[in-house]
Structure formats: structure tokens, C-alpha cells
């Protein structure tokens, strides 16, 4: 049996509506956040979980971490049912909610860690080695004596990660860990997650809206929409279906040069550059480049696949999300 | 157990960080104490009451000194509930009620002790008829300290019930304002319970709010004789069990139906 097994997971939320005019009581509306989601995750996998806002990603994570009780379906994580054996279950997992904090605001982060050590009953020796290892990997050494409130967002996320991994969880949930981080912090964070995954064999389930996170980290990706699983597989397979457009940017020595192209291929001018969007299935790349070269002396030419966010947007559109 | 102790220590430390708040609290409570005593002096000047004035002034000072034990809710815990950071605490291998209970207790204990020590010193130095008198007897002092500790456990359990309501309404103001008003009156902070009519007192002193400060203060001033003390302690202990039981159940139900809203 796989490490995480989810079968027909269902969760409903009852939402009180605004009172209608003339009505005595407020109406209720049931939102079906999850409508029969099933999947399996093996130990040591790094799995990306994507979907538009409100798709049910966080609900899944909350059920898997034992916070929420589902309305239907079966879930086991490492042989345990999260919401039934909550205390035993949470001992083995770590969570990072990108927009919330677990560390104490007004005290040095080291003291928050000391408290976590007691909460998870980490032996003193193991705590020391693990903390040293994590502070080095996350570059937190100089910050341990700094109160959380004085840290920048990127430093704070690193500090949160360290806190969530002190007790060597088998399974780590990351809910939008790179939200609001600058490029350097994002890269460092991704590198760290790969390191942790390889070094400790930690199973990582990542929800994010940043497709770069998925590209960099997750061999496997799951797409959720309207509470249903829409895709489960490798990212290239997913994108292959939507990745139809390429953009060519070309810069000529001669400013007046215009290549001869079929009317179906739009041509746009951006300063000195010409931008051409085409579909490689409809028009061969080699043919296109030959035509571009025929029109003048090419100073520079780049071919780019479509922006991944656009791909995902196209995918969500087609899946009617 | 260690985790709860650690959380207690952490919260206690935090209270030491807010020294400005302590100073402000002391000044404010001393001011209130003096005003209240001036009012009772004026009342007594017109019509002397059965109860000696020095007992009233002692009562007022002790109430003011431990004001922070009654009226203090942890803004951080409220924020956690409001913002959903409580999700983290739900992912800990701990009993959530116990975890919050020790934090509240640490805050109330440290906060009130930091304010009480300088205030009581000040009140001792005031002349009779204004200040705090010495305890009625050594036994009375010891019983009142025991009573104060039980009062602390009791008020922490009450606060956790209020917190339970906050978990439901996501807003601390409504239910808390109501329960706090009830507490300030029935705990004897606004008017000493000893000044209520005797028939009222028989009922009020049995309610949980009277166990917080009124019971230990009476042991201190000698209005409750030391021989009566075991009965008082028993009432306090019974309320602690009942309130903690209600709180635990309330939290368990809350945890089952909890939703962490938004992403």
C-alpha cells in the first residue's frame, strides 16, 4: 500500500448566505469543496498540487494534516487515518502555511525552536545536529537570536521551514511557500527543498501558484479544479497538450526588413524587434527561420516557448475552471 | 508535560518584555484604587457601615493589584484564531485546550504579579483608612495564597471558555465584552462583594466569579475565618473541575467542526 492513499475524498462546507429581503432566516448554501478525489503518493515523492484559487487544494492539505474531518472517503497516511489518530499522525508530519506563522513574533526564533523541541520531544543531541544542519542549509546562523518581527519575508519563510523540519517529519506539506519572495530567496528555497527531499527522503506535497516552483521541483503534478482531480502525471505531459505556440523575436541589421510569411501568422513590431507567434505543428520552425533569414541580415534571433503561466491559464480555461 | 511547561515559560517571558505596559497598568490601577477609596471614605463619612473601612480599602487594593488576572486576554491567541494561524497549533501532538490553558495562565500570573508587587508595596505605605492592612493572621495569609492560586486556575479556565466562543464567532469582542462585564461585577472588582446585601452574597459567593479574587481576599482580610478556609478551597476546586471540563468539551466540539477559512 502506498504511503499516502486517498480514496473518494469528499468535503462540504455550509455557507450562510446574506438574508434575502422579506425572508425571515438566512439561507444556507452547501459548497462541495472536494467531490471524490483519489490519489496515491509513494514515500520520497515530490508532488506538486496545482489548481486555481478555491479548487480545494488547501482543503485536501488540511484533511491530510488532520485538521479537518472529511465528509466522505478514506485517507491513510503511513497507515494512519489523520483525523482519527491526530496526535500520533501529526508527530510525523511537518507543515508550512505560506501566509501564516508558527513562530513567536516577539522572541528570538531560536526560542521558538526550543519550544518545538519540547513539543515534539526531540532528544537534545538530535535536536542540536538537526538544528545545525538546517541552519546551515537555510543560512539562518546569524538570525537565530533575532526576534521574528525583525526578519524579512524571505528570512521568515526560511525560519518557518526550519521550524517545520526540526522533528524530521516523514511528510512535509508546503502551502504556497514562495509567495511574496524575491528571486534569490525563491531559488534558495527550491534548492533547499530538493536537498531535504534527497537527503532525508522526506515526502513533499507542494501547493503553489508559482509554476516555476513546479517546473523546478516536481516530477509529478496533480491538477485540481472544482473539487475534482483533472490531471495526475508528469508536467511535460500536461503542458504538451497546451504548449502550441512559440514566439520568435528577430532583430535585423536593416530597419526596413520585413519577412514574407503566410497571412495566418501575426507579426508585431516592438521597437527594433519583430515578434512572430506561430504554432510549430502548423508551420515548420525550419521553414520559418529560412524565411526570416531571406528577408535581411539577422542580428539576433530567439525562439521561446509560451510563458508557462499562459499555458496554465489556457489549461484552466479549457477545463472550465 | 514538558511541552506545556515550556509553553508556560515562553509566555511568561513574553510578559516580562512588555515593561511599559506594566508601568502603565500600575499607574492606572493605583489611580483607580485611590478614586474608589475616596468614594468609600465619602460614603462612610456620611453613614458609617457595619464593615470597618480598613477592610474595604484592603479589598479595593487587592482587587486593583490583581486586576490583570481578571481582565487580560492574550491578543496573540485571538489573532491566531482570527487569522487562521491556529492551523499550526492544530498540527501539534498536543492537547490544544491544555496548550492554550497554560499560555493563558502564564500571562495572567506573570502579568498580575508584575503589577501586584509594586502596587501592594505602595498600598502598605499608605496610612490606615487609605491603605492595605496586614493579613488577619498567618494562617489567613497562607490560605489566601492557596486561594489565589486556585483563583488563577479558575479564571484561566473561564478565559478558555471565552476563547471557545471566539473560535466560533471569529471575533473576540461580542461574547468577551459580555462575559467580562459579568466577571467585573460578580468578581467584586466594581463593588466589593462584601458590600452586597447578605442574601445576595449567599448566592454570589457560590458562583465561579467569586472564586477568582473575592474568596482569597476574604481569607486575607479575615472576613472568612481560617477555620472556614477548607470549605472555600473545596468550592474553588469544584469550580475548576467543572469549568475545565466544560472548556475541554467545548474545544473538542469546536475542533471537530472547525474550518480554517481561506487558502
Please characterize this protein's 3D structure.
The complex is a heterodimer of chains A (321) and B (263). By secondary structure, chain A is of the alpha/beta class. Chain A has two domains: 42-70 and 79-240, Rossmann fold; 246-305, no CATH class. Chain A has helices at residues 57-64, 86-90, 109-119, 124-137, 153-165, 183-200, 211-217, 235-240, 285-294, 308-318; strands spanning 4-16, 28-41, 46-50, 72-77, 93-97, 171-175, 203-207, 220-225, 228-234, 246-252, 267-270, 273-278, 298-305. In chain A, the strands form three sheets. A six-stranded mixed β-sheet of chain A has the order 5-6-7-3-8-9, with helices on both faces. In chain A, strands 11-12-10-13 form a four-stranded antiparallel β-sheet, with no helix packed on it. The longest helix of chain A is centred in the middle third of the chain and has 18 residues, at 183-200. Chain A is globular. Chain A starts with a strand and ends with a helix. The model of chain A has no long low-confidence stretch (mean pLDDT 87). Chain B has 263 residues and is an all-alpha fold. Chain B has one domain. The longest helix of chain B has 32 residues, at 138-169. The two termini of chain B are 33 Å apart. The A-B interface holds A 13, 53, 58, 62, 65-69, 87-88, 90-91, 93, 95, 97, 99-102, 104-107, 111, 114-115, 118-121, 175-176 and B 2-3, 5-7, 10, 13-14, 17, 76, 83-85, 87-88, 90-94, 256, 258-260, 263.
Amino acid at each position: 500500500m502506498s504511503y499516502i492513499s486517498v480514496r473518494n475524498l469528499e468535503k462540504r462546507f455550509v455557507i450562510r448566505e446574506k438574508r434575502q429581503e422579506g425572508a425571515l432566516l438566512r439561507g444556507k448554501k452547501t459548497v462541495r469543496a472536494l467531490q471524490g478525489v483519489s490519489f496515491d503518493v509513494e514515500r520520497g515523492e515530490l508532488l506538486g498540487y496545482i489548481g486555481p484559487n478555491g479548487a480545494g487544494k488547501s482543503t485536501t492539505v488540511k484533511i491530510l494534516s488532520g485538521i479537518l474531518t472529511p465528509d466522505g472517503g478514506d485517507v491513510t497516511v503511513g497507515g494512519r487515518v489523520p483525523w482519527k489518530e491526530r496526535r500520533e499522525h501529526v508527530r510525523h508530519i511537518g507543515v508550512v502555511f505560506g501566509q501564516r506563522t508558527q513562530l513567536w513574533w516577539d522572541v528570538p526564533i531560536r526560542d521558538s525552536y526550543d519550544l518545538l523541541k519540547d513539543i515534539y520531544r526531540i532528544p537534545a543531541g538530535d535536536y542540536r545536529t538537526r538544528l545545525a544542519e538546517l541552519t546551515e542549509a537555510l543560512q539562518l546562523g546569524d538570525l537565530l537570536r533575532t526576534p521574528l518581527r525583525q526578519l524579512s519575508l524571505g528570512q521568515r519563510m526560511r525560519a518557518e521551514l526550519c521550524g517545520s523540519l526540526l522533528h524530521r517529519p516523514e511528510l512535509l506539506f508546503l502551502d504556497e511557500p514562495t509567495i511574496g519572495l524575491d528571486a534569490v530567496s525563491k531559488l534558495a528555497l527550491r534548492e533547499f527543498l530538493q536537498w531535504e527531499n534527497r537527503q532525508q527522503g522526506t515526502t513533499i506535497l507542494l501547493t503553489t501558484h508559482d509554476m516555476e516552483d513546479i517546473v523546478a521541483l516536481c516530477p509529478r503534478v496533480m491538477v485540481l479544479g472544482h473539487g475534482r482531480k483533472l490531471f495526475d502525471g508528469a508536467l511535460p505531459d500536461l503542458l504538451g497538450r497546451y504548449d502550441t505556440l512559440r514566439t520568435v523575436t528577430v532583430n535585423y541589421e536593416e530597419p526596413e526588413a520585413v519577412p514574407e510569411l503566410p497571412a495566418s501568422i501575426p507579426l508585431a513590431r516592438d521597437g527594433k524587434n519583430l515578434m512572430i507567434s506561430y504554432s510549430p505543428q502548423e508551420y515548420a520552425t525550419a521553414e520559418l527561420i529560412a524565411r526570416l533569414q531571406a528577408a535581411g541580415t539577422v542580428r539576433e534571433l530567439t525562439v521561446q516557448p509560451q510563458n508557462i503561466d499562459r499555458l496554465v491559464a489556457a489549461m484552466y480555461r479549457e477545463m472550465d475552471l | 508535560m514538558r511541552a506545556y511547561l515550556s509553553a508556560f515559560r515562553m509566555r511568561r517571558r513574553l510578559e516580562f518584555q512588555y515593561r511599559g505596559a506594566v508601568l502603565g497598568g500600575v499607574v492606572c490601577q493605583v489611580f483607580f484604587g485611590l478614586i474608589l477609596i475616596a468614594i468609600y471614605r465619602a460614603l462612610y463619612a456620611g453613614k458609617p457601615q457595619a464593615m470597618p473601612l480598613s477592610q474595604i480599602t484592603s479589598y479595593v487594593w487587592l482587587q486593583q493589584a490583581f486586576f490583570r488576572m481578571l481582565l487580560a486576554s492574550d491578543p496573540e491567541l485571538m489573532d491566531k484564531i482570527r487569522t487562521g494561524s491556529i492551523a499550526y497549533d492544530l498540527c501539534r501532538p498536543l492537547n490544544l485546550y491544555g496548550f492554550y490553558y497554560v499560555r493563558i495562565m502564564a500571562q495572567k500570573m506573570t502579568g498580575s504579579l508584575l503589577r501586584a508587587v509594586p502596587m501592594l508595596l505602595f498600598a502598605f505605605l499608605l496610612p490606615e483608612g487609605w491603605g492595605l492592612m496586614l493579613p488577619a493572621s498567618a494562617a489567613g495569609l497562607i490560605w489566601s495564597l492557596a486561594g489565589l492560586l486556585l483563583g488563577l486556575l479558575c479564571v484561566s479556565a473561564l478565559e478558555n471558555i471565552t476563547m471557545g466562543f471566539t473560535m466560533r464567532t471569529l471575533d473576540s469582542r461580542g461574547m468577551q465584552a459580555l462575559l467580562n462585564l459579568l466577571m467585573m461585577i460578580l468578581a467584586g472588582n466594581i463593588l466589593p462583594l462584601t458590600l452586597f446585601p447578605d442574601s445576595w452574597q449567599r448566592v454570589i459567593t457560590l458562583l465561579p466569579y467569586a472564586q477568582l479574587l473575592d474568596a482569597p481576599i476574604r481569607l486575607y482580610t479575615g472576613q472568612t475565618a481560617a477555620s472556614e478556609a477548607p470549605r472555600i478551597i473545596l468550592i474553588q476546586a469544584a469550580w475548576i473541575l467543572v469549568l475545565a471540563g466544560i472548556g475541554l468539551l467545548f474545544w473538542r466540539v469546536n475542533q471537530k467542526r472547525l474550518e480554517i477559512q481561506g487558502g
